[in-house]
């Protein structure tokens, strides 16, 4: 299990993330409409000796790209960083706060959100890192174990294997916005439910953040307009924490909480498909 400096992403991790966001190889398009496109990573073909074996299918990786014509990449980047503003635009948030600062461009934070019934609400503890380089704004995160934030009994601890955003300017007030994620909500949900739901949810996430970006400049004027610790680390008021206190969170170590109503979820999905 990775600990210490291995937990904090370096330039190679950001470069690989950007490559995945821009690549078309091994991705299949699932949706394209109104400047929005959704892709799913193509699963590798199993080796001959593995065919027919009982393998658990993994949660797939999804990518969603949106063309934005009225908000700059820098503004969208600020929206994604600004924790105080998130509570204004994210309708699913239960709790969201930063826990500690790891480096000038990395911190660890907590986020919990509302899930549709009959599912239980989820939470994550993630290491988040960011970089502005070569005309690109990037934020990535993945789940970590924090000694003071173990899984809670009232929530299901989900796993972000890799989640991130890439913003690329196309003009002074326009950009492309790419969201890439491989996340496991845990619980007892079948992987097909998770994979299918993510294709519907990803575009909604981007549209919601885009709307928040349209309204952010006016909001920021009246809410600490000069405070942006993601650009100015000296402004951060978070306590410092050593990376050695964290470890990458693997899904296998978390309990698969039983959730009733999965059959109902499946029926709803099938009804949507037939409509």
Name its key features.
alpha+beta; disordered N terminus; 275 residues; disordered C terminus; globular; eleven-stranded mixed beta sheet
Characterize the structure shown:
There is one protein chain. The protein has 275 residues and is of the alpha+beta class. Helices cover 26% and strands 32% of the residues. The chain has 5 helices and 11 strands, in the order H-E-E-E-H-H-E-E-E-E-E-E-E-H-E-H. It has helices spanning 11-22, 73-81, 83-89, 191-221, 262-274; strands at residues 27-33, 36-41, 62-68, 93-103, 106-113, 122-133, 136-145, 156-157, 159-171, 174-184, 247-248. Strands 1, 2, 3, 4, 5, 6, 7, 8, 9, 10 and 11 form an 11-stranded mixed beta sheet that branches. Helix 2 packs across helix 4 (191-221). The longest helix has 31 residues, at 191-221. The protein is globular, with a radius of gyration of 19 Å. The N and C termini lie far apart (46 Å). Mean pLDDT is 85; it is low at 1-5, 51-56 and 262-275.
Mean pLDDT: 85
The level of helicity is 25-40%
Q: Count of helices?
A: 5
Radius of gyration: 19 Å
Taken as a percent bin, the fraction of beta residues is 25-35%
Order of helices and strands: HEEEHHEEEEEEEHEH
**Regarding quaternary structure, how should these chains be classified?**
single chain
Outline the biggest β-sheet: 11 strands, mixed
Shape descriptor: globular
């Amino acid at each position: 299990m990775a600990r210490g400096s291995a937990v904090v992403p370096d330039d190679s991790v950001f470069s690989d993330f950007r490559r995945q966001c821009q690549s078309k190889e091994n991705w299949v398009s699932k949706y394209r409409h109104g400047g929005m496109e959704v892709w799913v990573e193509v699963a590798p073909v199993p080796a001959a000796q593995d065919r027919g074996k009982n393998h658990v299918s993994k949660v797939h990786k999804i990518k969603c790209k949106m063309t934005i014509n009225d908000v700059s990449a820098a503004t969208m980047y600020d929206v994604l960083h600004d924790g105080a503003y998130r509570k204004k635009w994210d309708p699913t948030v239960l709790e969201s706060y930063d826990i500690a600062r790891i480096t000038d461009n990395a911190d660890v934070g907590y986020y919990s959100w509302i899930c549709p019934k009959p599912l239980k609400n989820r939470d994550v503890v993630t290491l988040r890192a960011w970089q502005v380089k070569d005309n690109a704004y990037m934020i990535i995160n993945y789940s970590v174990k924090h000694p003071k934030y173990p899984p809670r009994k009232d929530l299901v601890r989900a796993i972000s294997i890799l989640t991130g955003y890439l913003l690329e300017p196309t003009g002074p007030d326009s950009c492309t916005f790419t969201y890439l994620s491989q996340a496991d909500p845990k619980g007892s949900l079948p992987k097909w439910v998770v994979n299918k739901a993510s294709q519907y949810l990803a575009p909604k996430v981007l549209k919601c953040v885009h709307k928040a970006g349209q309204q952010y400049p006016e909001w920021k004027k009246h809410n600490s307009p000069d405070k942006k610790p993601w650009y100015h680390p000296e402004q951060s008021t978070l306590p410092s924490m050593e990376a050695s206190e964290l470890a990458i969170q693997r899904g296998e170590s978390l309990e698969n909480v039983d959730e009733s109503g999965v059959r109902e979820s499946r029926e709803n999905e099938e009804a949507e498909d037939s409509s």
